[in-house]
Design a protein that fits this description.
With 401 residues, this protein is of the alpha+beta class. It is 38% helix and 15% strand.
C-alpha cells in the first residue's frame, strides 16, 4: 500500500507505558473522581433509604389514625339501628391528621391524608373546613389516584366531588335558615317520672302542633309508661319511649319503628327552631317521626339535629335538665366491663346495660291533672311505678267461662 510503513505502527509496550505515565500523573484526580462516584451513589442509596423509612413511618401513623388500631373507634356507630355519626371521634382524628400534615407534605400519603381529613371534618359537621381541605386536594393533586375513587352512591361521580357537593349544599342550606325563638305553652306540662328523678316538659303547640298533640295523647294512654331510655349519649342526647319494643329486656327491636305511629315532620319547627340544651325533639325512623318516642338534647347545641328532627318542646327547668343528664350518664353496653368483647358491646354501644325506665308520663294543666288519662291516676305525681294490671281470673274446673 502506497505511503504505508511498518515503522509507523506504535509499539504496544510504548502505548502501555504512555498510558501508565498518564494514569500516574492523574492518579489522584482519577481516584478522587471514582471515590466521589462511589460516595455519591452510597449517599443516594442512603437518602432513598431514609426517605422510604420516613414515608413508611408516616404511612404507619396515618393508618393508625384512620383505622384507629388501638382505640377501635369508628366514624359511625350502628347502635342497633341507623348509623350515628361519632362527632367527637371525627374531631379527634381530624386533629391528629392536621398534626401529621406538615410531615406528610410532598409524599404519596398527602392526597390520601387530605381526603380522610375532609371526610372527618364533614362527619364532625364542620363543612367549611371540609371544603377548604377538598379545595387543596383539587388544586394540588388533579391527577392523583385518590380522585378516581367512585362515589359511594354513584359510579359516575368521584368520591371527592360527592363529598364536595354534600358539604357545599349543607353549608348553603344552613346559611339560608332563619331561626326563631319558640314560645312554649306554659299552661300545660307533661310530668315524666323516671328511675332517676322527674322532668317537666312544655310543648311548642304553635310550631309543632301535631307532634305536641301526639305526645300528649301517648302520655294519656300510658304509652310511655314502663319504657326504657334506649339510646344515651353522655353530654349529647338521650332517646326514650318506644312502647312494647323497649319494655322488654331485648335491645334488638328497640329502634324498630311502627308505621301506624308515624308523623310527618313539621317544617315550621324543623326549619326555624335550633336544637339546644333542654330541647325535646322527634325521633325519625324509616317510616317517619315516631309518636311513641322522644329525644332530649343534653349538649349546649346540636346543629346536626337542626332541619333533620322536629323540635316540639323543652324541659321546663334546670332540675329536669339535671335528671336528663343523669339519664344520659347511665352505663351502656360499651362501658360495662362485663360486656366488653361481647356482641352487646358491638351492636348496642349506647344502650344502657341496666334498664333505666320511664315509670309514667302524665299531663297537667294549670297545676291540675288533665282529664282523659286511660290508666290509673290515683298515684300520679309520685315516684312510684304504676301498679301492674291484675291478671285475668281463669275459670275453675267445671266452671263456665
Amino acid at each position: 500500500m502506497a505511503g504505508f510503513s511498518p515503522d509507523a505502527i506504535p509499539d504496544v509496550a510504548d502505548v502501555r507505558e504512555g498510558l501508565a505515565d498518564r494514569f500516574e500523573k492523574h492518579r489522584i484526580a482519577i481516584l478522587g473522581g471514582l471515590a466521589a462516584i462511589v460516595v455519591g451513589s452510597l449517599a443516594l442509596l442512603a437518602l432513598g433509604s431514609v426517605r422510604r423509612d420516613r414515608e413508611d413511618r408516616i404511612r404507619s401513623e396515618y393508618h393508625s389514625i384512620v383505622d384507629d388500631f388501638e382505640g377501635r373507634k369508628t366514624l359511625y356507630a350502628a347502635g342497633g339501628g341507623d348509623p350515628v355519626p361519632q362527632k367527637e371521634v371525627a374531631r379527634e382524628q381530624a386533629g391528629r391528621l392536621e398534626d401529621l400534615r406538615p410531615r406528610a407534605k410532598g409524599t404519596e400519603i398527602e392526597p390520601l391524608l387530605l381526603l380522610q381529613l375532609a371526610l372527618r371534618w364533614q362527619v364532625a359537621g364542620e363543612d367549611a373546613k371540609a371544603l377548604a381541605v377538598l379545595g387543596e386536594l383539587d388544586a394540588q393533586f388533579t391527577d392523583a389516584p385518590v380522585r378516581q375513587i367512585p362515589s359511594f352512591d354513584s359510579d359516575r361521580a368521584s368520591l371527592v366531588s360527592r363529598l364536595e357537593a354534600l358539604s357545599r349544599d349543607r353549608k348553603k342550606f344552613s346559611e339560608g335558615l332563619r331561626f326563631a325563638e319558640p314560645g312554649p305553652d306554659l299552661s300545660t306540662h307533661a310530668l315524666v317520672e323516671t328511675d332517676l328523678g322527674n322532668m317537666k316538659i312544655v310543648l311548642y303547640r304553635d310550631l309543632a302542633r301535631r307532634h305536641a298533640e301526639a305526645f300528649l295523647a301517648q302520655a294519656k294512654s300510658g304509652g310511655f309508661n314502663g319504657t326504657q331510655a334506649y339510646v344515651v349519649r353522655r353530654g349529647e342526647w338521650i332517646e326514650c319511649g318506644g312502647g312494647d319494643r323497649t319494655r322488654d329486656d331485648d335491645p334488638k327491636d328497640d329502634r324498630e319503628d311502627d308505621p301506624a305511629l308515624s308523623l310527618a315532620p313539621e317544617d315550621d319547627a324543623r326549619y326555624t327552631v335550633k336544637h339546644r340544651r333542654r330541647t325535646v325533639t322527634s325521633v325519625p325512623l324509616l317510616s317517619g317521626d315516631q309518636a311513641d318516642r322522644f329525644a332530649v338534647v343534653l349538649s349546649e347545641a346540636k346543629p346536626d339535629f337542626d332541619s333533620v328532627r322536629t323540635p316540639f318542646g323543652e324541659l321546663l327547668d334546670d332540675a329536669g335538665a339535671a335528671v336528663a343528664d343523669r339519664l344520659g350518664s347511665a352505663m351502656t353496653y360499651a362501658q360495662d366491663a362485663t360486656k366488653i368483647g361481647r356482641k352487646e358491646e358491638r351492636d348496642f354501644p349506647f344502650t344502657p346495660s341496666k334498664p333505666v325506665r320511664i315509670r309514667r308520663v302524665s299531663v297537667w294543666k294549670d297545676g291540675v291533672l288533665d282529664p282523659g288519662h286511660a290508666w290509673d291516676t290515683s298515684r300520679v305525681n309520685t315516684d312510684q311505678p304504676e301498679p301492674p294490671k291484675e291478671a285475668e281470673k281463669k275459670p275453675e274446673d267445671g266452671e263456665k267461662e
